[in-house]
Amino acid sequence: MRFDVLTLFPDMFSVVRDLGVTGRAHAQGRWALQAWNPRDYTHDVHRTVDDRPYGGGPGMVMMPGPLEAALQAAQAQRASAGLAPAPVILMSPTGRRFDQLAAQQLAASPGAVLVCGRYEGLDQRFIDRCVTDEISLGDFVLSGGELAALAVIDAAVRLMPGVLNDDASAVQDSFNPALSGLLDSPHYTRPEVYEGVSVPPELLSGHHANIARWRREQSLRLTQQRRPDLLDAARRQGLLTPADERFLSLLATRRDKSPGDPGQG
Ligand SMILES: C[S@@+](CC[C@H](N)C(=O)[O-])C[C@H]1O[C@@H](n2cnc3c(N)ncnc32)[C@H](O)[C@@H]1O
C-alpha cells in the first residue's frame, strides 16, 4: 500500500512514517509514504500557494494550479511504480464521516492520494476536476487536513496483515465484525490490586468461556450506555444472540455501577 499526501507541512508525516507500529511497518516495507508540497510546484519567487477569496470575506484559499501540478507528479510516480491511478481523497469537514469500515476498505486497497487543505480551504475547481472522495474526521474544524490524513493513514495501516504484533488484536477492537460492530470491553493488567481496586474476578478465573462471556457482556453494557446506535445496527443485522438479549434485558432492570462508568471508584 502506498499513500501520497499533498501537504504544505510534509514534516508532520514523520509521525506515522517513523514512530510506533506504523513506523515499524514502514521500515519493513509493508507500506510507503510520499509527501508532495504544492509550494514545490509554484512559479513565482514567493512560492505562492494561496490567494484572497473571490467575493470577499476572511482568510485565504488554496490556488488550484500548484495543487493539480503536485497531484500530477504524485500520480505519475505511482504509475511508474506500476500502480493504477489512485483515488484522490480530500480531507474536509464537509466530507463523508470516516469510520472503521472505510479504514478496512483502504487497508485492502493499493492506497490513495490524500489532499490536506489549509486556510479557508481549496479552490472548488481543483476539487471538481481532481478529487474523487471527501473524508471528514468528525463534526469539528481543524486548522488543516494533516491531522485528519494522519488519522486515516494510521487507522488503515494498522489493519494490514502483519502490521500489529498480534493480528487478532485489531479484530478484537471496537467496531469490528468479531465484536458484532460493538464497543470493546475494558482491559486490565498487573498489578492484580491497584489502589485497593481488584481486577474483575472473571478475568482471573482462567475459565475461557466465562472470560469470553464477561467480555461480551461488558461490550454490550458499554455499547448500550454510550452508542445505542451500534447496538441497534447489530440487532438489525441479526448479530445479537438470545444470551445477548437476555443480558440486555437484565441490564435494563439493574442500576449498579460497572467498570468504565463515569465517576466509578
Ligand atoms: C480551517 S479548515 C477549512 C474549513 C472550511 N472553511 C469549512 O468550514 O468547511 C482547513 C482545512 O482543514 C481540513 N479539515 C478541517 N476540519 C476537518 C475535518 N473535520 N475533517 C477533515 N479535514 C478537516 C480540511 O482539509 C480543510 O480544508
Automatic annotation (TrEMBL):
Enzyme class: transferase
UniProt xrefs under CDD domains: TrmD-like
InterPro entries the UniProt entry points to: Alpha/beta_knot_MTases (IPR029028), tRNA_m1G_MeTrfase_C_sf (IPR023148), tRNA_m1G_MeTrfase_TrmD (IPR002649), tRNA_m1G_MTases_N (IPR029026), tRNA_MeTrfase_TRMD/TRM10 (IPR016009)
Pfam families: tRNA_m1G_MT
Residues holding S-adenosyl-L-methionine: 117, 137-142
Entry's transmembrane regions: none
Subcellular location(s) per record: Cytoplasm
HAMAP family reported for this sequence: TrmD
NCBIfam families for the chain: PRK00026.1 (NF000648), trmD (TIGR00088)
Stated role: Specifically methylates guanosine-37 in various tRNAs.
Name of the molecule in the record: tRNA (guanine-N(1)-)-methyltransferase
Species, as recorded: Achromobacter aloeverae
Phylogenetic lineage: Bacteria, Pseudomonadati, Pseudomonadota, Betaproteobacteria, Burkholderiales
